[in-house]
Amino acid sequence: MAKLRTIFTCQSCGYQSPKWLGRCPDCSSWNSFVEEDYSAPSSKGKERASLYKDEPVLLKDVEAREEERLKTGISELDRVLGGGIVAGSVILIGGDPGVGKSTISLQVSNQLTKQGIKVLYVSGEESVHQTKLRAKRLGSHESDCLYIVNQTDLSLIVEYIKKLKPGAVIIDSIQVVFDPGISSSAGSVSQVRECAGILTQLAKTTGTPIFIIGHVTKEGTIAGPRVLEHIVDTVLYFEGDRFSLYRILRAVKNRFGSTNEIGVFEMNAQGLAEVKNPSEIFLSERPQDVAGSVVTSIMEGSRPLLVEMQSLVSRSSFGYARRRAQGFDSNRLSLLTAVLEKRIGLALEAEDIFVNVAGGIKVEDPAADLGLAVAIASAFREQLVLPATLILGEVGLSGEVRSVSQIMLRINEAEKLGFKHCILPKNNHKNLKYYKGAIELIPVANLKEGLDIALGRQAAPCGSQGGK
Predict the structure, then answer these.
(1) Are residues 227 and 308 in the same domain?
(2) Whole-model pTM above 0.85?
C-alpha cells in the first residue's frame, strides 16, 4: 500500500508545497492553500500503459480524414463549436451562476434525443425530480433516449457510461464529482484534475463526446482553471449578466475549430432562444437625435456585428478627469482621448468621459476606434452624427485612419439594416472601386476628415446652437 503524506495544494493554480504558505509563489493568490493527503503514484499506471499497443508511425503514413461532426440542433452552438460536436471530444462550459450553463446543457440533450441519440445527463447538484421539473419548464419532449441520474461518485458514473454506451454525456458539474480513491474533498484541485483526466481518457477511448459544466471563481475564471483548460478539447464561456436579457457564448479554446466565433442567445421562460440577427437586436432600442451615439461594425469570427457605441462627456467636479468604459478597453479609450486632444485640439483634460457598448458586447476589434472617437467628439460638442451612418477605421497615434479587415462583410451587413452612409479608411476604399451597393462610401485619411464629415454640415446641432 502506498504511503500517505500531507501536502498543501493551491486551489487556484494547483501549485503544491510540503508546508502551508500564505501566498502562492506561482499565481500570487492569498490564503489559497488547502491541506490534502497525498500518496505516491502506484505501479497501476505502468500496468495500464502497457495495455496500449499503438506504436509510433510516420506522419506521412497517417491517413488524413475529415472528422464527422454531430449537429446539436442549436445553430448558434454549432457555430461556436466549429460546425458540431466531434466524436470523443471533451467540452467544458463555464460561466457565472444563473447565466444558463445547465439550461443550454439540457436543451442540447433534448435536441440530440430528437435525432435518436442516447444521452446520459449526470446531475450532481439536483435530484432527478428537480431536473425533471426544469426539463418540463424548458419544454423538453418525452424521449426514450434521455437518461438522468443523480450521482457524484466518479467510479459509478464511469460504470453507467460503459453500461449504457450513450452517444453523449453531460456532467453537471465537475466540482461536485469526486474520485473515491483520492482523500481530498470534492471540488479541490486534486479531485478536479483527476476526475477530468479520467473522463477525458474515457471519451478518447470510447469516442463518446462529454460536456463538462464548471463553476467560476469570483475573478471570473473556472475553478481549478488551468488544470481543466489544459485537459479538455474545447472551453466555452457564457458572457452576460444573470439579470441581462442576452447571453453570449464564446470559445476561448477549440482544438477542432476557430476561437473567434460567438453565439448569441436570449434568455426567456422557455430557456435560451437563438438570436439569428444580433445586429438588428443590438440596434433595436437605439435612441434617435441624441449626441454621442455611433454605430460601428466589429468582426466576431466570420460574423459581422453592428453595435452601438455611446459616449457621455461632462465637466469634472473633482479636478481629476475620469475615464470609464463598459465593453471597451480602458487603455484604448485613454489613447483615443489623447489623440483627440493632441491632433484635433479638443479640450478634454477637465472632462469626465464615459463609454458604453450597448447590448453587453465586449469590443476588441480596432475597427471601432474611429467610431468611438466620433462618439466622444459628438458628446463633447453636443452635435449629432450624420444619420444612418456606419463608421469604420483604426486610429493611429498621429491621427491617421488605418484600413480594417473584411470590409465588404461589414458593409453588406449595414446595407441589410438600411444604413445610407459608410465612413471608412481611404485604403479600404481603393479596393472597392466596383462596389455598386446602396450605401454611399465616404473615404477618410485621418481623424480630422472623419470628424468633419460625421459632425459637419450634414449633421444638425443637438439642442441649442453651437456646442463646445
Answers:
(1) no
(2) no
Cα(175)–Cα(450) distance, rounded to whole angstroms? 52
398/345 same-domain check = yes
* Cell (9 digits) for 17: 508545497
Q: How many residues are present in the chain?
A: 468
Give the model confidence (pLDDT) of 184-205 as tens digits. Answer: 778 778 888 889 999 999 999 9
* Residue tagged 477605421 (cell numbers): 393
Provide the grid cell at 103: 439550461
Average pLDDT, the chain: 86
Listed residue (38, 180, 203, 172) closest to 107, CA to CA = 172
At 272-285, the pLDDT tens digits run 999 888 898 889 88
Percent of the chain with pLDDT over 70: 90
Let me know whether 383 and 429 are in one domain: yes
Q: Domain check: are 245 and 341 in the same one?
A: no
Task: Give the residue numbers spanning the domain of 19.
Answer: 4-40
The three cell numbers of residue 270 are 422557455
Q: Compute how many other C-beta atoms are within 10 angstroms of the C-beta atom of residue 382.
A: 17
Is 104 contained in some domain?
A: yes
Least confident of 62-66, 230-234, 239-243: 239-243
Alpha-carbon distance of 158 to 165, in angstroms, equals: 10
CB 361 within 8 A of CB 327: yes
DSSP designation for 346: -
Q: Do residue 73 and residue 198 come from a single domain?
A: yes
414 within domain boundaries: yes
Write down which residue in 214, 249, 276 finishes a domain: 276
Q: Same domain, yes or no, for 195 and 74?
A: yes
Do 135 and 226 sit in the same domain of this protein? yes
Bridge partners (DSSP) listed for residue 391:
423
Higher-scoring residue by pLDDT: 159, 57:
159
